[in-house]
Amino acid sequence: MAADEQGALTEAVFYILLALHEPRHGYAIMQGVQELTNDRVALGPGTLYGALNTLVEKGWIKALQDDKNSRRKEYIITDQGESIFQTELKRLEELLTHGKLV
Fold first, then answer.
1. Are 25 and 69 in contact (CB under 8 A)?
2. 89 C-beta neighbours (distance < 10 Å), count
3. Secondary structure letter of residue 12 according to DSSP
4. Of 17, 28, 46, 68, whose CB has the highest number of CB atoms within 10 Å?
5. How far apart are CA 6 and CA 9, in angstroms?
6. Which domains does the chain have, with CATH numbers?
7. What is the distance between the alpha carbons of residues 67 and 2, in angstroms, rounded to a whole number?
8. In terms of pTM, does the model score above 0.85?
9. SS3 string of 25-94?
């Protein structure tokens, strides 16, 4: 699916992709999103790990091997995920531009 055909991202997926511009494990993603949004968006473990599994399946993020602690899996955005993220960012910027016209 091309980046321009995938439709709008959910807020949770947008923030997960944003957080994964650097390697992070699940708990760090939850903390980072909550901090960035001033506690407005709080990702629960079920939501987060379900989304992470889906994003890995889509190829938008990938899991990194952590030889030191095999239980803690870190993730990072892929090139495909970055393309999806940038397309969504442009869509949101267009919405803001149009919204400010009134």
1. no
2. 14
3. H
4. 17
5. 8
6. 9-99 (1.10.10.10)
7. 34
8. yes
9. EHHHHHHHHHHHCCCCCCCCHHHHHHHHHHHHHHCCEEEECCCCCCCCCEEEECHHHHHHHHHHHHHHHH
Q: Mind listing the pLDDT tens digit of every residue in the chain (102 residues)? A: 444 567 899 999 999 999 999 999 999 999 999 999 999 999 999 999 999 999 999 999 999 976 666 677 999 999 999 999 999 999 999 999 999 999
DSSP state of 3: G
CA distance 29 to 20: 8
Total residue length of the chain: 102
What does the alpha-carbon distance between residue 99 and residue 102 come to, in Å, rounded to a whole number? 6
- Residue in the structure block whose two tokens are 């994964």: 20
How far apart CA 89 and CA 2 sit, in angstroms, is 15
Exposure string of 46-66, with b = 16+ CB inside 10 Å and e = fewer, is eebeebbeebbeeebbeeeee
